[in-house]
């Protein structure tokens, strides 16, 4: 019997330490970061000192070299306090630092990873365009081959960390007619000529994380900045998004956990009809459901993370945990506001922030619909084999 | 020079309970943590280390095997080495026996070298005696300064500020070797970083385990045998009383309240 | 305990005198009252030990509060408290005179030398006792003290050695007055102390600047809410805080209205505090606020609305107009402090 639900001492110690950091450092500013809708460089620096920007980066490049199970726990802990800051961290780690570490050349790794791991550079990843969301094949950004490399033209939207990033992974068509087989991933740097940050989006939730538009106008990118193979970008993109989904799912678990803790503590303290709310079954059953669902989502996250760490196929598992966790986060925050009643609807309590933050977890890194497509394809693929 | 920081693993207070039938402490389910003030003691050692070239920080504790975690926390923060004093013979130690055990381990560690500073938290959150620090110093025959709210080391002179009486601070200095116990105000302890944690947990050689034989302990002075105090009973204190309402004219209530506060020593 | 001595060789209760400023510290008088009780049960006497200079009127004061004997140790070279001086002199006196019990104030000074003294005497010491009694069968001192942050009480005994040493904080026991004071025996000795050991020495005494403290660290908080009505009225709270040695805090509404700085806010979106004493002035007790302060050790609430929610978590409730009450309260504190 190998199945074992316990973790080692180091895992628990990291969890406690990260929790203490988040409560002490991110907790007091979370409300303001959300209100101001600004990426907090101050917090980013402190998270950098803790090592949060290089959680899975190998120690030789200045990272902590931790496994994905621990990584997911750290993202969950950050999200439990400040979901929008967990977004900046998870995007940087799992869809920028991870693909560079996995597919980058030694030269690319040595150039980009140390600064990403320390947080001196913030990383982004972008496929999405005004006319290409879930449908990657319709990407319109082009990369025209010239003597020393490629010239990129096009617009990217909804780029997490776009306005604060220094290292960008950009998907562009090197062979437009080939569809997804003509996609290549390029490493772009802030300040390249013709590479401009556009509009900073005003969002419903995740307001402390920067989401911007990127505009490429005749951007010259050297050949050595191609990540992986030319025209081999689709495979990198899909695997990167698989990894990214574990991070987003972990974030959703953190939001659900926060909703559970906030509403159960409120229900215990709040008295109506001379009894605490927890004495009413309508409330306590909702809390029981929240706890069960949050734990269910966490287990799915851990299974996907375990498969990734053990080099097993995990695309379906990543999609499942992301699908379940994001829906759990949405349900848990909705129930939590109901438990808070009128107090849940005002900004004196952080629950409304988590409610707003939860929604996008069902959308980005692949919508719930796309998750179901992936899961269904896996199921039907097996049926037909 | 060496800075030795004496730390202790304690149960997290809020969850401690007494078994109503046996009267014993229910400890199993209680999470163990590093004594909060000891973080300040470790931080002081690390700050001094960072301000000089020649400092090695060694964390030491006496306790069961699980106390390794407290030492790993110190290593995660940045201590260079850690020593766990662990032996069934140490069980049941009071502060006198504990301080004896710690001080002979420190003697072994220092091996007649006098160039050292010992830092401790002013007290542990479980026993709350504040005895072990000064008693270690007494056993080693070195000065102790308790309750520091500020501490610095200039050459071999330790300069400490501490509260004397209400509204007054006292500055004290002494030469090394010396022992200082610190309060919350002395610094803001750093949190371990992810790198620090992986370094501490993955480098097994940083932590040594010593038993009674390793430190050549006198068996009459350790554990139960070396303890002069015994806990004869433990119980849960009476719950908080119901609230009271003071009545009368504002002036009358003011007098009653002031007299109550005086009685309770708030004024 | 000396190697060849027996438990029965020890008798008498000692209280070590400490001064704050030039006055005898109140804890000494409180300890004398308790020592007197214990001495009666053991059929023995109470000795107040004074290290350093002492004046004759002090003997009288100590006598009224319970001392039968006074042992004054004068040392020409030592003016104020010094760790090694106290430890050495008391060690020698204990070896020579063998008291059964020694009580010491759990003051910064007491905490400094008492552990060293117990180590040098090789005897037990119990810290911060909240109750002291004699066990009839054994004659042992039963020392009650809180542990685990006050969640548990323990009874501790020093069974195999003497003297039995205990420290007690200020305010735990009440001082007692003897109605018929018997004659106090005063004995004065001179002690020559040469500092051969490395000593820790005081270099300076500084008056503390009270303003640097944070609401999170304050032992006493005076908090105001919307009921304070104006920014000017927060001046009253400042005055009260100064008088009582605390810090001023506010609810979210008070902070939002600019009556007090944002970093002094207590509650859900401010700080969570746990002071020894929390005085809630004109605070209704909305859950956003009480979440941040309900674990305070003692809560006094002043509000003119008898139905205010704050009263449900307060220890002491005062239904009054806060603006009328606080000036009266400040005057009363001044009166009581001087009495």
Structural account:
- The complex is a heterotrimer of chains A (385), B (267) and C (339).
- By secondary structure, chain A is an alpha+beta fold.
- Chain A has helices at residues 9-36, 41-50, 68-81, 83-103, 106-118, 233-269, 281-309, 315-340, 342-345, 351-359, 368-384; strands at 123-126, 142-145, 149-160, 167-173, 183-189, 195-200, 211-222, 226-227, 271-272, 275-276.
- In chain A, helix 7 runs antiparallel to helix 8, helix 8 (315-340) packs antiparallel against helix 10 and helix 8 (315-340) runs antiparallel to helix 11.
- The model of chain A has no long low-confidence stretch (mean pLDDT 95).
- Chain B is globular, with a radius of gyration of 21 Å.
- Chain B has a nine-stranded mixed sheet with strand order 11-10-9-12-8-1-6-7-13, sandwiched between helices.
- Chain B has helices at 36-51, 68-77, 95-110, 132-140, 194-202, 250-263; strands spanning 2-6, 9-11, 17-18, 25-26, 32-34, 56-62, 81-85, 116-121, 144-154, 157-163, 168-175, 178-182, 207-210, 229-235, 244-246.
- The model of chain B has no long low-confidence stretch (mean pLDDT 90).
- Chain B is α/β, with parallel strands linked by helices and 267 residues long.
- Chain C has 339 residues and is an alpha/beta fold.
- Chain C is built from eight helices and 18 strands.
- In chain C, helix 3 (83-97) packs across helix 4 and helix 5 (234-244) packs parallel to helix 8 (322-338).
- The longest helix of chain C has 17 residues, at 26-42.
- Chains B and C meet through strand 3, helix 3, helix 4, strand 9 and strand 10 of B and helix 3, helix 4, strand 7, strand 9 and strand 10 of C.
Secondary structure layout:
The complex is a heterotrimer of chains A (385), B (267) and C (339).
Chain A: H1 9-36, H2 41-50, H3 68-81, H4 83-103, H5 106-118, E1 123-126, E2 142-145, E3 149-160, E4 167-173, E5 183-189, E6 195-200, E7 211-222, E8 226-227, H6 233-269, E9 271-272, E10 275-276, H7 281-309, H8 315-340, H9 342-345, H10 351-359, H11 368-384
Chain B: E1 2-6, E2 9-11, E3 17-18, E4 25-26, E5 32-34, H1 36-51, E6 56-62, H2 68-77, E7 81-85, H3 95-110, E8 116-121, H4 132-140, E9 144-154, E10 157-163, E11 168-175, E12 178-182, H5 194-202, E13 207-210, E14 229-235, E15 244-246, H6 250-263
Parallel strand pairs in B: 1-6, 1-8, 6-7, 7-13, 8-12, 9-12
Antiparallel strand pairs in B: 2-5, 3-4, 9-10, 10-11
Helix pairs in contact in B: 2-5, 3-4
Chain C: E1 13-16, E2 19-20, E3 23-24, H1 26-42, E4 46-51, H2 56-64, E5 69-74, H3 83-97, E6 101-105, H4 108-121, E7 125-126, E8 131-134, E9 141-147, E10 152-158, E11 164-168, E12 185-190, E13 201-207, E14 220-224, H5 234-244, E15 247-250, H6 252-256, E16 277-281, H7 287-290, E17 298-303, E18 316-319, H8 322-338
Parallel strand pairs in C: 1-4, 1-6, 4-5, 5-12, 6-11, 7-11, 14-15, 14-16, 16-17, 17-18
Antiparallel strand pairs in C: 2-3, 8-9, 9-10
């Amino acid at each position: 019997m190998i199945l074992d639900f316990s973790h080692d001492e180091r895992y628990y110690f990291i969890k406690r330490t990260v929790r203490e950091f988040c409560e002490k450092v991110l907790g007091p500013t979370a409300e303001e970061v959300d209100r101001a809708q600004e990426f907090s460089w101050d917090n980013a620096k402190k998270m950098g000192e803790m090592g949060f920007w290089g959680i899975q980066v190998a120690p030789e490049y200045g990272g902590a070299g931790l496994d994905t199970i621990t990584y997911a726990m750290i993202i969950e802990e950050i999200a439990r306090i400040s979901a929008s800051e967990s977004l900046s961290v998870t995007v940087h780690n799992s869809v920028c630092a991870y693909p560079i570490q996995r597919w980058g050349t030694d030269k690319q790794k040595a150039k980009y990873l140390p600064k990403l791991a320390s947080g001196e550079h913030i990383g982004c990843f972008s496929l999405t365009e005004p006319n290409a969301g879930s449908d990657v094949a319709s990407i319109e950004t082009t990369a025209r081959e010239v003597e020393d490399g490629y010239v990129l033209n096009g617009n990217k939207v909804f780029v997490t960390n776009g306005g604060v990033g220094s290292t960008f992974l950009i998907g562009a068509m090197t062979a437009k007619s080939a569809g997804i087989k003509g996609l290549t991933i390029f490493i772009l740097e802030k300040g390249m000529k013709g590479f401009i940050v556009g509009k900073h989006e005003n969002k419903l939730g995740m307001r402390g994380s920067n989401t911007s538009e990127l505009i490429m106008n005749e951007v010259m990118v050297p050949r050595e900045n191609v990540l992986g193979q030319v025209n081999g970008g689709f495979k990198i993109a899909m695997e990167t998004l698989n990894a990214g989904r574990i991070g987003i799912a972990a974030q959703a678990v953190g939001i659900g956990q926060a909703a559970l803790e906030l509403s159960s503590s409120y229900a215990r303290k709040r008295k109506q009809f001379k009894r605490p709310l927890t004495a009413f079954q309508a409330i306590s059953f909702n809390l029981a459901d929240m706890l069960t669902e949050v734990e269910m989502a966490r287990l799915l996250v851990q299974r996907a993370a375990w498969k990734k760490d053990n080099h097993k196929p995990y695309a379906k598992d990543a999609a499942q945990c992301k699908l379940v966790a994001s829906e759990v986060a949405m349900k848990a925050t909705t129930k939590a506001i109901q438990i808070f009643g009128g107090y849940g609807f005002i900004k004196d309590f952080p629950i409304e922030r988590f409610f707003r933050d939860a929604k996008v977890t069902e959308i980005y890194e692949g919508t719930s619909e796309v998750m179901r497509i992936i899961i269904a394809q896996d199921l039907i693929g097996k049926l037909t084999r | 020079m060496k800075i030795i920081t004496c730390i202790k693993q304690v149960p997290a207070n809020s969850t401690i309970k007494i078994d109503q039938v046996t009267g014993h402490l229910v400890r199993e389910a209680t999470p163990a943590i590093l004594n909060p003030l000891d973080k300040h003691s470790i931080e002081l050692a690390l700050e001094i280390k960072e301000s000089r070239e020649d400092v090695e920080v060694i964390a030491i504790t006496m306790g069961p095997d699980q106390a390794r975690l407290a030492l790993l926390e110190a290593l995660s923060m940045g201590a260079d080495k850690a020593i766990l004093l662990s032996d069934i013979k140490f069980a049941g130690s009071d502060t006198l026996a504990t301080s004896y055990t710690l001080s002979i381990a420190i003697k072994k560690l220092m091996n007649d070298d006098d160039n050292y500073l010992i830092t401790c938290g002013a007290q542990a959150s479980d026993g709350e005696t504040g005895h072990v620090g000064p008693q270690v110093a007494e056993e080693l025959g070195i000065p102790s300064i308790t309750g520091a709210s500020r501490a610095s080391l200039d050459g071999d002179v330790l300069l400490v500020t501490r509260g004397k009486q209400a509204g007054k601070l006292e500055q004290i200095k002494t030469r090394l070797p010396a022992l200082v116990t610190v309060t919350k105000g002395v610094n803001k302890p750093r949190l371990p970083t992810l790198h620090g944690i992986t370094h501490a947990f993955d480098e097994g050689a940083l932590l040594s385990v010593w038993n009674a034989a390793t430190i050549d302990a006198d068996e009459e002075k350790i554990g139960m045998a070396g303890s002069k105090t015994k806990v004869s009973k433990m119980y849960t204190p009476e719950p908080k009383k119901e609230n009271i309402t003071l009545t009368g004219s504002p002036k009358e209530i003011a007098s009653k309240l002031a007299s109550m506060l005086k009685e309770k020593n708030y004024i | 305990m000396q190697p060849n001595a027996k438990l029965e060789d020890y008798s008498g209760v000692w209280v070590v005198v400490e001064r704050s400023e030039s006055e005898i510290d109140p804890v000494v008088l409180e300890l004398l009252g308790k020592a007197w009780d214990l001495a009666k049960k053991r059929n023995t006497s109470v000795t107040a030990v004074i290290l350093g200079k002492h004046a004759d009127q002090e003997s009288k004061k100590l006598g009224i509060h319970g001392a039968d004997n006074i042992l004054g140790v004068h040392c020409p070279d030592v003016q104020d408290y010094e760790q090694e001086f106290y430890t050495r002199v008391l060690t020698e006196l204990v070896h020579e005179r063998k008291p059964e019990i020694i009580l010491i104030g759990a003051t910064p000074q007491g905490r400094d030398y008492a552990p060293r003294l117990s180590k040098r005497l090789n005897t037990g010491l119990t810290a911060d006792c909240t109750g002291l009694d004699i066990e009839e069968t054994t004659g042992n001192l039963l020392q009650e003290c809180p542990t685990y942050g006050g969640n548990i009480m323990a009874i501790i005994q020093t069974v195999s050695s003497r003297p039995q040493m205990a420290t007690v904080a200020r305010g735990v026991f009440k001082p007692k007055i003897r109605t018929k004071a018997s004659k106090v025996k005063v004995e004065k000795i001179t002690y020559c102390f040469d500092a051969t050991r490395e000593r820790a020495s005081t270099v300076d005494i500084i008056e503390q600047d009270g303003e640097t403290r944070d609401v999170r660290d304050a032992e006493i908080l005076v908090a105001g809410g919307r009921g304070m009505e104006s920014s000017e009225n927060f001046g009253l709270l400042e005055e009260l805080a100064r008088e009582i040695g605390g810090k001023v805090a506010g609810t979210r509404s008070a902070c939002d209205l600019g009556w007090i700085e944002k970093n002094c806010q207590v509650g859900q979106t401010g700080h969570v505090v746990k002071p020894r004493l929390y005085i809630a002035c004109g605070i209704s007790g909305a859950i956003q606020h009480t979440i941040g302060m309900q674990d305070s050790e003692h809560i006094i609430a002043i509000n003119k609305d008898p139905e205010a929610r704050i009263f449900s978590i307060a220890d002491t409730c005062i239904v009054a107009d806060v603006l009328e009450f606080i000036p009266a309260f400040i005057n009363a504190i001044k009166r009581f402090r001087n009495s």
